[in-house]
Design goal:
Helix content: under 10%
Mean pLDDT: 77
Number of strands: 10
Structural class: mainly beta
Number of domains: 2
Strand content: 35-45%
Order of helices and strands: EEEEEHEEEEE
Distance between the termini: 28 Å
Length: about 130
């Protein structure tokens, strides 16, 4: 399946790691960074069932205070406007949107200062 990797910042043909089971999520593996990510259907592929992310105005990326940042973990839950620190990239960002995924999972979009907007999983440990 063709998918965008938010780490590599490119589209790749990815192999399916796990087919949708009871949670409805198809997991893919990036051939470049070997990261595992959920299949995110393209807008034309998603159809009417797709939920639109909630958009809310947020402060500019330059206004991020590292002192208020929480270390990003896929097991944690975040709110729009929260500041996160991604240790892997040593980058700070602000949560700008949340989107429901199949299988009672949630994806957050974070605007990072160096890496731009990235999609990350939240609450996978619950």
């Amino acid at each position: 399946m063709r998918q965008y990797c938010s780490v590599c910042k490119a589209h790749f043909d990815m192999t399916v790691v796990s087919e949708a089971s009871d949670d409805g999520v198809v997991w893919l593996k990036c051939p470049q960074c070997a990261g595992i990510l959920p299949h995110m259907p393209a807008e034309d592929e998603a159809g009417a069932e797709a939920t639109q992310p909630e958009e809310e105005p947020v402060a500019e990326v330059e206004e991020i205070d590292p002192e208020t940042a929480r270390v990003y973990s896929p097991e944690e839950h975040y709110e729009i406007g929260d500041v996160v620190h991604h240790r892997g990239w040593n980058d700070y960002g602000r949560v700008v949107a949340k989107e429901a995924l199949p299988g009672n999972r949630t994806m957050i979009r974070v605007q990072f200062t160096e890496n731009g907007e990235v999609q990350l999983i939240e609450g996978s440990g619950a």
